[in-house]
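Posting for a labmate who doesn't have an account.
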Amino acid sequence: MMGKSHAAELLDKLETFLKSQNFGESPIELYKPIEYILSLGGKRIRPLLSLLTYGMYQNAPEKILKQASAIEVFHNFTLMHDDIMDQAPLRRGKDTVHEKWNENIAILSGDVMLVRAYDLLLETDKSLLPEIIKIFNKTAAEVCEGQQFDMNFESLPKVSEEEYINMIRLKTAVLLGCALKIGAVLGGAEEVEANKLYDFGVNIGIGFQLKDDLLDVYADQAKFGKQVGGDIISNKKTFLLIKALELAKGKDSQELNHWLSQTEFDKAEKVDSVKAIYGKLGIKKLTEDKMNSYFQAGFHQLENIKFNNQSYFDELKQITVDLIHREK
């Protein structure tokens, strides 16, 4: 019988490590939400990417559990604050922190998470610490830029495809790139290899967000964790809506704008009507083509990459492929 994959072993170690962390005790309202949001799970993709990338260059990736966990703690900090801004009631099927406690607690608790992420990074070897902090800081600022662009888009009448791709690059993709680059740098990869892995992560990250946009409209409700058509109901400026607004003419354009302007409507009717317009305009295929172009660009970065441990590289690729083909 085959043993556990590297990824499964590393995920077990990561969960054990996160559970063992004492982020602080008193006041309990400040620290309990951190424990709570980290206990909600999630795929832990970002820290896993760091660990596998390190494994491509050095043995025993568990040596960088602290740095990998810093990325996961930072990611969950951004989710805690994003949920306040979006007034989201649920995260991974459970009450969001601001719903379970209140907004002020969620703001402060998130702030402490960011501080604790730096505490975890401080364990880095002194010769590499400045570079790791620099990569992390650049990414952290970009994630905030992406979130601000996303909020700006809500009040803009028109958003271009280029603006949207840049927003998702900043809001979600750069953190995947950061996770891979930090793993590579800690593993002693050469700069050119670390940058290829960063670019792989960013391209794949953009592809993943386009996949999310597609799933929101075309997923099988039985498999999908959220309401199918939620983006259509809320007029979210996704790639699909941006392309539809760009391509719709005459009656289609009138109908699309009619649904966007309605404040009271039957949700199912709106979703069906907008999906019908998407169907006429070939929006699904356009989105799939754009998504696949980013996936191809990502894998192109890995074609001539140098590394030491084949099995970790193979698993890194396989996890990415599995995420590309997910249905929820």
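Reply:
Got it, the structure tokens are right above this. The longest helix spans residues 191-218.
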